[in-house]
Amino acid sequence: MKSSSIVVSSLLVLTFVVAACAPAPTPAPTAVPQPTAAPEPTAAPEAKLGTIVDTAVADGRFTTLVAALTAADLVETLSGAGPFTVFAPTDDAFAKLPAGTVEGLLKPENKQALIDTLLYHVVSGKVMAADVTSLTSASTVLGKDVAIKVDMGKVYINDAQVIITDIETSNGVIHVVDSVILPPAEVGTIVDTAVADGRFTTLVAALTAADLVETLSGAGPFTVFAPTNDAFAKLPAGTVEGLLKAENKQALIDTLLYHVVSGKVMAADVTGLTSASTVLGKDVAIKVDMGNVYINDAQVIITDIVTSNGVIHVIDTVIVPPAQVGTIVDTAVADGRFTTLVAALQAAELVETLSGAGPFTVFAPTDDAFAKLPAGTVENLLKPANIKQLKDILLYHVVSGKVMAADVVGLSSAPTVLGQNLKISENYGNVYLNGTVQVVITDIAASNGVIHVIDAVLLPK
């Protein structure tokens, strides 16, 4: 037993010695862990674009617009295929309208007006901002154009500024505007427009009394220089009432037709004219002074009110037509300031001459002008023995042809019927004949010429 233990112990010792003397074992290779490839990310599904209406509802800034579309039964339309371009007013834009406007439009009885207003914000097709800026106008679904303007980098639709662009939807695009775009009112005739305006009640009453409503509601076109109620009020007391009486109907017709020109003459055209022929058949003078336009003595205060059959220009004074124009002699007789001149024409047997066809231009001395002559001069000239001298003096005041004031100032002389020239000069805006005789009143029209009033008698050499 003892010997067995010794043998076992010896074997154990031998085993340890052999193990200690043996070479070190090669370690088993360690497996290097390979990185696990991350899974390919799954692309998030694109948010599905909603319709114009869906987008407006989701946005939150268009609650009034959505309510309006609902009241107008346009939700289905703007949820359709389109495409549409909508200039969408925000709630703040609607809030800028006069108090009660939105509430009024949402009433059932105003549904058509609401529809018209909304459709005036819609353009067929998908028009992106880059396209909008290259346009000057766009036709809306309402059938009426909106103006497009780019100013200092900002885009305006009529007067509404585009503040956000290119909100894409499944059936078009939204551009946000800061104001509601109101469609223009339906344009009426000249009479309709005058009635609706409120400043022309006297004019409308006059047109009615003169039976001219139908005429100025016709096809035209006409240009009307329309006096306001204030303009009629400037006439002498009782004038309007007198004109409206049945017995004065022709005078009323004449007065009204003197304010009407055939054709559509816009303000830009008016300023290029010096006169215009009225429907009455008598001309009105047109003058531009310091940027203001005058028709005879009436100032044009508002221009280019467009109507379906013409245009209205508002004036501050009623234009009274001239009385029936007589000859130069008739006009001198009727005036009252030329009694000496008329007596001289009669004595010189020139009445018939200056009542003829002409035309003539007469530089007419007033009674005061004749009174400046030395005492007894007029009386001597009127004597039969001095008729030849009187005739020469009178003919020295007459120029052949119709020479208006505007033509006179461009001349240095003018030949008279006597055969001697008149010298013409200008000094500080005043026109003088032969250096000292001043022209004080110009362009008194006669049927056979024109009269210019002078302050002294012209004496031939």
Can I get a quick summary?
The protein is 30% helix and 25% strand.
Which tags fit this structure?
single chain; alpha+beta; FAS1 domain; seven-stranded mixed sheet; 19 helices; disordered N terminus
Structural summary, described in words:
It is a single chain. This protein is of the alpha+beta class and 461 residues long. It folds into 3 domains: 52-177, FAS1 domain, CATH 2.30.180.10; 190-315, FAS1 domain; 328-454, FAS1 domain (Roll), CATH 2.30.180. It has helices spanning 2-21, 52-59, 63-71, 91-95, 101-105, 111-119, 129-132, 190-197, 201-209, 229-233, 239-243, 249-257, 267-270, 328-335, 339-347, 367-371, 377-381, 387-395, 405-408, and strands at residues 84-89, 122-124, 137-139, 145-151, 154-157, 160-169, 172-177, 222-227, 260-262, 275-277, 283-289, 292-295, 298-307, 310-315, 360-365, 398-400, 413-415, 421-427, 430-433, 437-446, 449-454. The strands form 3 sheets. A 7-stranded mixed β-sheet has the order 2-1-7-6-5-4-3. A 7-stranded mixed β-sheet has the order 9-8-14-13-12-11-10. Strands 16-15-21-20-19-18-17 form a 7-stranded mixed β-sheet. The protein starts with a helix and ends in a 7-residue tail after the last strand. The model is unreliable at 1-32 (pLDDT under 50).
CATH superfamily of the largest domain: FAS1 domain
The CATH topology annotation of the largest domain reads as: FAS1 domain
The proportion of residues in beta strands is 25-35%
Class computed from helices, strands and strand pairing: alpha+beta
- Name the average pLDDT: 86
The total of beta strands comes to 21
**Radius of gyration of CA atoms, rounded to a whole number:** 47 Å
- Tell me roughly what share of residues is in helical segments: 25-40%
CATH architecture call of the largest domain: Roll
* Spatial separation of the terminal alpha carbons: 189 Å
Poorly predicted spans:
1-32
Note the total helix count.
19
Count of folded domains = 3
Spatial order of the strands in the main sheet?
2-1-7-6-5-4-3
Largest sheet: 7 strands, mixed
Name the shape in a single word. elongated
What is the level 1 CATH name of the largest domain? Mainly Beta
